[in-house]
Amino acid sequence: MKKICVFVGNRANYSSIKSVMRAVQAHPKLQLQVVLGASAVLDRFGKVEDLIRSDGFEPDFTFHNLVEGNHPSTMAKSTGLGLMDAAMIFDHLKPEMLVVVGDRFEMMSVTLAAAYMNIRIVHTMGGEVTGTIDESIRHAITKFAHIHFPANEDSRKRIIKMGEDESYVFNVGCPRTDIILDELKNDSHEVLKDVFKIYGGVGIEFDLKNPFLLVSQHSVTTEFGSNRRQIDETLKALDDLKIPTIMLWPNPDAGGNDISQGIRAFRENNNPEWLHLFKNLPTHIYSHLMNTTACLVGNSSSGVRDGAFIGTPAVNIGTRQNNRLRAKNVLQVDYHAREISDSIKFQVKHGKYESSDIYGDGTAGGKIAEILANSNPSIQKTITY
Questions:
Q1: Which of 101, 142, 211, 314 lies in disulfide reach of 296, CB 3.0 to 4.6 Å?
Q2: Which residues have CB under 8 Å from 239's CB, separation 6+?
Q3: Across residues 96-121, what is the average pLDDT?
Q4: Which one is the CATH code of 2-172+363-373: 3.40.50.10860, 2.60.40.10, 3.40.50.2000, 3.40.50.720?
């Protein structure tokens, strides 16, 4: 059986690759290996490891490589530590292929290790255009990868323009859409009825059958030093509206502490009676929240990707998702409280948008597993122009 190693470094990684893991696990020609690191194994980020185990995936290895500090230098150090740990793990597991997702710094370290160790690299969700350091990492991983699974046709064309072999570039859609399609067969209100009781968090509890906002805002690494001001503008807009709100904790990127400190200070100084905070939530719960929220606010790619398929009204703030392909459900705003609150009002009034398949039709996982089972690209890469 062909050994397929999947690396998960944070909660977004997992939601973006879960359907592929299921399909690989079920395929008769493939053996799934699971490696966890970075924030996926840390309690303060909700310990995604526990969610992964509860979904029936047993990690083959876990490692701790995240250097605390949320500074540009700690991201660089974390990448270096991850490279060293990944080399040891791959030497033990001896995978034939490594599957990496998108554009995170956690992915860069395992990609480098696999490349030096002649392990074929499989890259999902490449070829896209955004802001932050993620833009550079994504395209760097593309040049290391042997098989590409972009989520849309525009991305497929970009990868080919970068000199990649067209016969190994497959537009299969976004694997996150698979999870949404499967999960939303269930009644969202029924799934969410005990969400506060089961998953805890801090802040007020409210009836999710009434309009509420869902907020996910992360730091922009290329705007380090500005993230506190950015989250303050968002919180000011939310406080002006006072619509019941669920907010998720930010990623461990450079500047993430500034966002966390801004949220803590806001809670201490204002005691908002409309806010509930969660460290982390399972993928299926987040999907149902997106299906029922009056508006998703922040700069998470979920508003662009998942929101397109679900039809979630979204207000995207700032540059983090710059130029990423989007449907009609997204309104773009700058870091100004009034602009943010006005856009939220518009989206709440508008309601659900028509579903769009720009990020696939929910069948990516099975397609990827089948292609991996029957592909054996040369380990030696050569630019095609």
A1: 314
A2: 266, 270, 272
A3: 96
A4: 3.40.50.2000
